[in-house]
Sequence to fold (181 residues):
Amino acid sequence: MAADRFIVVTGGPGSGKTSLIDALQAQGYARSIEAGRAIIQDQMMIDGPALPWKDPELFAEAMLIWEMRSYRMAQSMAGPVIFDRGVPDAIGYLRLLNRPIPSHFHEAARHFRYNPTVFIAPPWAEIFTQDRERKQSFEEACRTFEAMVAVYSACGYSLVELPLAPVQERLSFLKSHLKQP
Fold:
């Protein structure tokens, strides 16, 4: 199945996901771009409304659309594609905020499937930082991790927790799991 080659790396903000995916890309793996940060950057540039601190539901909808488009784009790529989050993350975001989850979010998670094994980066206080786009606290990053565990599990994925280790160790860990049948 083509979706088996779609590998998701998820977790809370500031847990080292993107650094790991950047390292995989440097080794020739195709990848997606994280929806949340890109949407925030674009919306801030145009003073748009789809920001988590302005309209969380619109932000979630934008993330869902972004992730579905990333999935469609990945279908034309060869080999494994590493996703910096996936469709279920939009559900996890709304769950984190205790907001209603529209049925089309669940329908999207049912249709846009990834490899059954999802890699999740746990909260990591030593590397966590806030910046212009990442305004969440470390406590919120921890709650995000818990929300992602819940939503990916509910969607039928098996989670593999990434070690709290330097990027090269995480890279070796993930690649060793990719080689398993």
Notes: DSSP finds seven helices and five strands in the chain. The beta strands are 6-11, 30-31, 81-84, 117-121, 158-161. The CA atoms of residues 86 and 146 lie 16 Å apart. Residues 56-74 form the longest helix (19 residues).
